[in-house]
Structure formats: structure tokens, C-alpha cells
Here is the input.
Amino acid sequence: MNELPDIHKKVVGLIGYGKERTTTVSQIAKLTGLGSTTVRNIVSEAVVKYGAPIGTSNDMGRGGYYIISNEVEKGETVRNLRSRALKIWNRANVIDDLPSVNQEKFLL
Here is the structure.
């Protein structure tokens, strides 16, 4: 595994250890001065390219990123990501299948 670049180290260093210590994208963005999209991209790259064990939670009041501390958190993160991916995949398929007609009736 390659060593994390400095900006990745900065972002990952702000992420709490364990699901009880989640850190939101907005918290990281505020502390680093980076945009939310940039933070998300850095976290994704830290996981995919560098193997950082960063979990994600959508729990109310505890949503955000965390450093995975055990197998339960690892499993929860995998289920969470797969569920979100499936929802996005389904939405993309529905949009792809929409007829090419005037959709003005959906404008408010």
C-alpha cells in the first residue's frame, strides 16, 4: 500500500476512531478549508487507492465517517455502501428508461 499524500493524511487525521466518533463531511471541510466534494473525493481515494479503513454511517445524529475499529463496523459499512449503491443504480435505471417527452408537469 502506498503512503497517503499529505492532504489525505490531513483529512484522514480528522476522522474519529470507531463508529461512536463519526466526523461529518462538513466538519472536515470547515477544518481544512476544502469543499465538501473535495473531502468526499479524498476520503474515497484514501479507501480505494491507499486502503484506509474508513467506515461510513448514515445513522441519525451519528452520520459521517469513522476509522473502522472492528469487524462489526466493517460489515455495517459494507452493507451501508452496497445499499446506497443499489439505490443509486435503481434510480439511474429509472431515469434512463424515462420517455423523451416534455416533463414540464414536474416543474413547480
Notes: The first strand starts at residue 54 and ends at 57. Residues 8 and 69 are 19 Å apart (CA to CA). The first helix runs from residue 6 to 13. Strands lie at 54-57, 64-67.
